[in-house]
Amino acid sequence: MNNENDALNNEVVSLQSFGAAETVTGSKHLLQTPDLNILVDCGLFQGMKSLRERNWEMPPAELSAVDVMILTHAHLDHCGYIPLFVKNGYRGKIYMSPPTRDLAELILRDSAKLQEEDADKANRRGYSKHRPAEPLYTTKDVETALQHFVTLEPGQTFGLNDHICFKFFPAGHILGACSLEINCYGKTIVFSGDLGRYHSELLPPPVHPVKADFVVMESTYGDRLHGADDPAEAFALAIKDTVFRRGNLLIPCFAVGRAQDVMHILWRLKNAQIIPQSIPVFLDSPMAASAGRSLLKYADWLTLPPGEAVQMFSGVTINQDYRLTEKTIRQKGSKIVLAASGMLTGGRVLEYLKHYLVDARNTVLMIGYQAEGTRGRALLNQVPEIKIHGQYYPVKARILGIGGLSAHADQTELLTWIKGFEQAPNEVFLVHGEPCAQEAFRVKLKDELRVPVTIMKEGRPKLLFRINRSELKVLPLSEMAKQPPVSPVEG
Q1: Secondary structure in 3-state letters for the chain
Q2: What percent of the chain has pLDDT over 70?
Q3: pLDDT, tens digit, 9 for 90 and up, residues 445-464
């Protein structure tokens, strides 16, 4: 019997990916069991138009049978499809860590608002081929989805039924990000989620589960190393050079995670008088400001000394109103602007690009991963012009990239994580990576761990194991509640 037929057999446990399979976006991983179907993450597709258009398609039939959803972290490519999933009929609970709950609400509200604004702008200016242009989902849809959110602390084992339980382990990617350990019919399945750095600006290194029979692992930087240099040095050079040329420095960044890292670096540089203390810094993202406040609320998830999270906001002007964007652009003199989105797929950063790209005195500093098909990747590839809202803008500004600030573990760190289990897993399934990175990491894993490694294909079920019900034991759910939570910092 082939894998497709095995997935239909009610005595097997299987895995299917409906996103983040040979790509880095749209994470949706379905664990199918005889009694429960569990969806790990529910993200939007971003990047290339062919991917973005898939957000408008009806979900595959298998996803209509989801009983439980578990969210690893709050980035849009992992949580952004939730409102539409609920709108299409999902009625179950959605489990996540407490910081992820707060950040996911911020991100989903912002996503809905931007979609509503973009649809309205497209209708008024007539640059959409749809008549009328409509948002993928609305703020009202987000409100409905939020009612399904349930929070659990790291290390707290939660039983879903007599044979399935799970718990979170902090993953260090962004505030609240977690890996997921599912104990399922006597086997342990670990979903890495997006893994963070082992030497992060703000967060502790990933906390590792003890064992795993199967691992579903991200592979974003499976073929690359970040380098050991402090990214603050590269920031300082870019800032000094741009100020010397009397230009502006634009830093596109994710509102959750990277914006806070950059603010801390800028605070460090100013505090050490490495860059001019007088240069104004603008944070043009209300969501990034709100995410920054979450740092203060969840200080036990950070490695910062007491009070430093407050100090890093000093000297930063936060643009809450869209009209302040235009005022900031018109303001004379060199300045540093942080604006979302990090891959230039939308948001206020596009307004800055329209004005700053055409001036050779300015610098656009790209940080973090730039997915294929995004404006960020195009700029790093040195395209001569960029299309924004139906018009083309020549690229005359200097485009720089800094890889050391990425929130994703590089190949060495990924290997460190996978080798942290007491013994090697039976099989590793690679997700969330582009084909070249995944193939390089597959070979590396196979050579060093001597275990089977599979690159997940979209919609193709993979049989994990068969169930012998005569040997099953009921999990002691009463004992689970007695297990203490895990500290995000101490592990």
Answers
A1: CCHHHHHHCCCEEEEEECCCCCCCCCCCEEEECCCCEEEECCCCCCCCHHHHHHHHCCCCHHHHHCCEEECCCCCHHHHCCHHHHHHCCCCCCEEECHHHHHHHHHHHHHHHHHHHHHHHHHHHHCCCCCCCCCCCCCHHHHHHHHCCEEECCCCCCEECCCCEEEEEEECCCCCCCEEEEEEECCEEEEECCCCCCCCCCCCCCCCCCCCCCEEEEECCCCCCCCCCCCHHHHHHHHHHHHHHCCCCEEEECCCCCHHHHHHHHHHHHHHCCCCCCCCCEEEECHHHHHHHHHHHHCHHHCCCCCCHHHHCCCCEEECCCHHHHHHHHHCCCCCEEEECCCCCCCCCHHHHHHHHCCCCCCEEEEECCCCCCCHHHHHHCCCCEEEECCEEEECCCEEEEECCCCCCCCHHHHHHHHCCCCCCCCEEEEECCCHHHHHHHHHHHHHHHCCCEEECCECCCEEEEECCHHHCCCCCHHHHCCCCCCCCCCC
A2: 93
A3: 999 999 999 999 999 999 99
- Domains belonging to the chain, first-starting first, are 3-224+407-480 (3.60.15.10), 231-402 (3.40.50.10890)
| 335 contacts: CB under 8 Å, gap ≥ 6 | 248, 249, 279, 280, 281, 282, 328
Place of tokens 């040997």: 471
Note the pLDDT tens digit of each residue in 166-216.
Answer: 999 999 999 999 999 999 999 999 999 999 999 888 999 999 899 999 999
Residue type for 480, please?
M
139 Cβ neighbours under 8 A, 6+ residues apart = 109, 112, 113, 116
Strands 391-394 and 385-388: antiparallel
* Both structure tokens of 389: 């809202």
Rg (CA), the chain: 22
β-strands 12-17, 37-40: how paired?
Answer: unpaired
